[in-house]
Structure formats: C-alpha cells, structure tokens
TrEMBL record:
The keyword Secreted applies. Keywords: Secreted, Signal. GO terms for cellular component: extracellular region. It comes from Bombyx mandarina. InterPro entries: 6-blade_b-propeller_TolB-like, MRJP/yellow-related. Belongs to the major royal jelly protein family. This is Yellow-f. Signal peptide: none annotated. It is found in: Secreted.
Length: 311
C-alpha cells in the first residue's frame, strides 16, 4: 500500500529548513516501483543532479535542481540477472529479483561530469556510465553503448549498496551472501576478481550490510541490520541486530587490493618487519649474542614473508 508518492526532500542542514520537496511525476513511478538508493552529484550547487534507482521496475529517475524537473531512463543493464536471484543469508534461503540497487558517483572530470558505477542487486556484474548521458534523456536513449560492463565479482557475490570515495577513487560495496564489504579502485581499467579487496567479513556482525558512505573527514561508515532474518525468521531481542561500523578509509583499504600506499613504502615495511623478526629469532637462539644480523638472513626472512603473502 502506497500512502505517499516517492519524493525528494531537500533540507539545509545548517538551519534544518526545508528547501524543496519534489514529488516524482506519476508517469515516472510504475506499479512495482521501489526507490531504495540515491546518488547525488553536487560539486556545482546550481547544477546538482540526483539519480534514484528503481529496483522494482528497472530504471533511473534523474532529477535536476536547476530545472526542478526529472526524467526516467531505462537500460538492459538495470535489469536483474535471472541466474543471480538466489540468496542465502544466515541459514535463510530466498529469491529476490531486485534490479538496479548500488549507485556510486566518482569525482567529476575536467568537463564536470562524473562516472556512475551501478549494479542490480540480483547480479554479479558491475556497470558504469558517464553522467553526461544521464543528464539528457534523449542523449541516453540514443547512446546505448555509453553504458559499460566492467566485469564480474564472481559467484555468490551479489551486492546491494555501494559508494565511491571521491578522494581515493575507491568503490566500496556490500557482499550480501558473504556478510562482507569489499572494494575496487576505479583507477583500474579492468574489474577482475584479483583487483577486488575484502574490507571486512563477519558472519555475526556484518549480516546484511545495508548502507555504505564516506564522510567529509575521510571516514568509511557501514550499517548492518539483519533484514533477511527479520523477513524470513525472527530477530532475537537478546542479540545485537543493528550495528554501525566506522574506520578511516586509508585504514580500511590497507593491505587490500585497494591499498593506495606507494609500493616502495610497503616494501620498506616488509624489510623492517623482516629485520625485527630476525632479531627476535637470534635473541631466542643466542640470548647473549649481538642482535646484529647478516644481510643474507634478512633476505631469507623477507623471502619467506613474500611467499607467505603470495599465498
């Protein structure tokens, strides 16, 4: 039962004053429509655009602040994949056909257009399109090939929410079946599994990650709420069912495929760690001997560390 039509409600957060309420026109809201996520492109306040994904009747409704108008864009890439509709969360198996769900906007390019990274929830794939094509419905309809398939996250890797940290260019996204949050550096031209990092995974605390954001102080925020357990079972009131996670972005992506630490710095850390491990070994074997180690010993230890990390 729909009590109120889908709307955009815009507040001034400094004064809490309502600036504008925009109700989606009737012809842009279908019988099965459901708007779960929105991405806002606001580097130029007067030319702010909002992109709302319709997971029920696959489409993106684009809203222009300047024009105070919206239009509906459709594409095959917004549709759910019938081979990715089976989910399993915390012992509950179910089928969902949610269409476009995850939306993440990059920093603008020289022409002040961003890249929108998106995916249906019932899908293993990630897609992208420049907002240059979304800002005009006719242009979007006439440029089917502007929408790009980036690649696959692999089996059992359906994702709901996503968000791009514009400073590092890292795309964060949930992995619903795996109770995890992962990442990918958008500076990589390809989207293979080896370029995707695992941020956090926990079968108790990260059950159904439901929202991801990065704030203006470079902190990553994640919410989890155990929604499938509530829908298909029963929440245990003696357990913690709702959680808020936070970490600095650079710490969250450290030692993952998304790490932005220069390679020379990482090698220096390994060498220093190798030296410390060697000193500890020497101290245990010969407690009264000098802690000075031969270079060959350090190299052997470093070699072991590299082989360990490679596995």
């Amino acid at each position: 039962t729909t009590k109120y039509p889908p709307s955009l409600i815009i507040y001034d957060l400094k004064t809490d004053n309502l600036l504008r309420k925009y109700v989606f026109p009737e012809d842009q809201v279908k019988e099965d429509s459901g708007f779960a996520n929105i991405a806002v492109e606001d580097t130029d306040c007067d030319k702010t655009y909002a992109y709302a994904g319709d997971l029920g009747k696959p489409a993106i409704v684009v809203y222009s602040w300047e024009k105070n108008d919206s239009w509906r864009i459709t594409h095959y890439y917004f549709n759910p994949d019938p081979l990715a509709c089976d989910f399993s969360v915390k012992g509950h198996n179910f089928s969902w056909t949610d269409a476009i769900f995850g939306l993440g906007l990059s920093a603008p390019n020289a022409d002040n257009f961003s890249t929108l990274y998106f995916h249906p929830m019932a899908s293993y794939n990630e897609f992208s399109v420049s907002t240059e094509y979304l800002r005009n419905q006719t242009v979007a309809d006439d440029n089917f090939d502007a929408f790009k398939l980036l690649g696959s996250r692999g089996p059992n890797a359906q994702s709901s929410v996503s968000f791009v940290d514009r400073k590092t260019g890292v795309l964060f996204y949930s992995l619903v079946n795996l109770n995890a949050v992962a990442c990918w550096r958008t500076s990589n031209n390809k989207y293979p599994m080896k370029n995707q990092g695992r941020i956090y995974m926990n079968e108790e605390t990260m059950v159904y990650p439901t929202d991801i954001k990065v704030d203006y102080e470079d902190n990553l925020w994640i919410l989890s709420n155990r929604l499938p357990i509530w829908m298909y079972g029963k929440l245990d009131l003696n357990e913690v069912n709702f959680r808020v996670f936070s970490a600095p972005v650079v710490h969250a992506i450290s030692h993952t495929a998304c790490d932005i630490t220069p390679r020379s710095d990482i090698l220096e850390k390994f060498v220093n760690k190798a030296k410390n491990i060697t000193k500890d070994i020497v101290a245990k074997v010969k407690p009264n001997s000098s802690t000075t180690t031969k270079p060959i010993t350090v190299l052997l230890t470093l070699s072991c560390l590299v082989r360990f990390l490679a596995t």
